[in-house]
Amino acid sequence: MGSEGGDGPAGATASRTARPTRTELQARLDDLIRENRVTVAVVFPAVGSVLLVASAEGLLPPPLAFEPFTLLLGTLVMRSPLLVGMAPLIDRRAAVGVTALAGYAYAVEFVGLRTGWPYGEFYYAIDLGPEVAGVPVGLPVFFLPLVGNAYLLCSLLLGERARAARIRLPAVIGTVIAMDLVLDPGAVALGFWAYPGGGPVYGVPLSNFAGWVLSATVTVLVLDAVLDRTALLDRLATCEFALDDLVSFVLLWGAVNVYFANWGAAAVAGLFGLGLLRADRFDVPLDGR
């Protein structure tokens, strides 16, 4: 009978309800990001910068100012191009590596909050959402993409030279430090976190950047060990939105630093904008595709 062979109504129903394959799901996610590039990479950081500054200036009432779940949700949306762009590269080995890096992020933050090592003494000045032992649960969402964006940008700008670890490692580490030169001054100005002892870089101590040398080195070494570099370069060649999260970073933190007159930090953000242009990635079109 037809139902026994899978060609009748039962077979048709089974076919319609079959779960999409990973390839099909990835294609759907790619299309979703492409269709909403302007919203994700331009509108969200623009609105986010306004809300953050308004919160810092006391223009929003306490229930809305720095609302933690809104902060986390907005960050996840802006991270989505990077997450979707990297998804095809995450096999079992890469998943283990990324999980280990998330664990490292928690561990080093836990130690840092209690000892001041390796970033220098600091504390969170606002609520960043649910915590485990004083460390925000969403920490990997803030930490890992910082290095991931640097890793992808250097892979694009260095081309074939990025295949050499002796070139790739210092280039990515230097790029991560430059990104933190944008992020930390803006975050301190907003009141996200604070360094009680202050520091020469808009209130940020040099020990913070030394700590990022350690964290960036650990992260790059793990990414090198678990990612297929050929597959990575192939994906970058065909995935035009993979660095849209860095576009968001430039717009949001560049605007915040301009508002607070952190001109050096804003200038570094501008350099990242130039890097994206050179990599042919600061190309979010008006129609979102």
UniProtKB/TrEMBL annotation:
<feature type="compositionally biased region" description="Low complexity">
    <location>
        <begin position="10"/>
        <end position="20"/>
    </location>
</feature>
<dbReference type="Pfam" id="PF04240">
    <property type="entry name" value="Caroten_synth"/>
</dbReference>
<dbReference type="InterPro" id="IPR017823">
    <property type="entry name" value="CruF"/>
</dbReference>
<feature type="transmembrane region" description="Helical">
    <location>
        <begin position="171"/>
        <end position="195"/>
    </location>
</feature>
<feature type="transmembrane region" description="Helical">
    <location>
        <begin position="94"/>
        <end position="117"/>
    </location>
</feature>
<dbReference type="InterPro" id="IPR053540">
    <property type="entry name" value="BABR_hydratase"/>
</dbReference>
<feature type="transmembrane region" description="Helical">
    <location>
        <begin position="137"/>
        <end position="159"/>
    </location>
</feature>
<feature type="transmembrane region" description="Helical">
    <location>
        <begin position="201"/>
        <end position="223"/>
    </location>
</feature>
<keyword id="KW-0812">Transmembrane</keyword>
<dbReference type="InterPro" id="IPR007354">
    <property type="entry name" value="CruF-like"/>
</dbReference>
<feature type="transmembrane region" description="Helical">
    <location>
        <begin position="38"/>
        <end position="56"/>
    </location>
</feature>
<keyword id="KW-0472">Membrane</keyword>
<feature type="transmembrane region" description="Helical">
    <location>
        <begin position="68"/>
        <end position="87"/>
    </location>
</feature>
<keyword id="KW-1133">Transmembrane helix</keyword>
<protein>
    <submittedName>
        <fullName>Carotenoid biosynthesis protein</fullName>
    </submittedName>
</protein>
<feature type="region of interest" description="Disordered">
    <location>
        <begin position="1"/>
        <end position="21"/>
    </location>
</feature>
